Amino acid sequence: xxxxxxxxxxxxxRLSRNRVVLAAIAHADAGGLEALSxxxxxxxxxxxxxxxxxHVANKDDLIDGMVDVVFSEIELPSSDEDxxxxxxxxALSVHDVLSRHRWPIGLMESRANPGPANLRxxxxxxxxxxxxxFDMEKVAxxxxxxxxxxxxxxxxxxxxxxxxxxxxxxxxxxxxxxxxTDEYPNLVAFxxxxxxxxxxxxxNEFENGLDVILDGLERADRx
Length: 223
What we know:
Helices cover 62% and strands 0% of the residues. It has helices spanning 17-31, 38-45, 49-52, 59-72, 83-100, 116-131, 136-158, 165-176, 185-195, 205-222. Helix 1 (17-31) packs across helix 2 and helix 8 (165-176) runs antiparallel to helix 9 (185-195). The longest helix is centred in the middle third of the chain and has 23 residues, at 136-158. The two termini are 29 Å apart. The model has no long low-confidence stretch (mean pLDDT 89).
């Protein structure tokens, strides 16, 4: 199994790019990317804002570094295991990482200057699929389908108007209250017969959908 390389916090007195990036990630995790500013990071570290620019060129450079750290936390797929196991493990790892860091969901594939962890991740995914016999056309299709689902699910989950099952009933009632009770019978049935069941968690749907996609890719690979 491939290992992850996660940057460690550095001694309090030494200012470095790694320390600046980790401080920025902590701010973004707490308040979102919109709450991030060089001044806030400098205040947290205890230095003048201009000192940060010895280690990051600008905010885009800082975000590049932050995204690279997020990539470093994702488990790399191994070419020593079958592609389905590797892709499933990798997808679950991405899902887990994005549940801890919500701010980079729309940034993971947008960096014009990707860092080494970012590049290593993509190379490993492609290498795992190629090692299992996927040609480049099928590699591209598999990668696109998987990432569209992984990032799309993470974005949907992040923006749901409820946090857990106890909130679903109140949210549904508020949404449907302006309409006649029989206007959307199928939606009402879904909410009452499924979503409001004890223990329901939308996040659990991720693995079900992932297996459907892997089944489809497996059939396509055999065709």
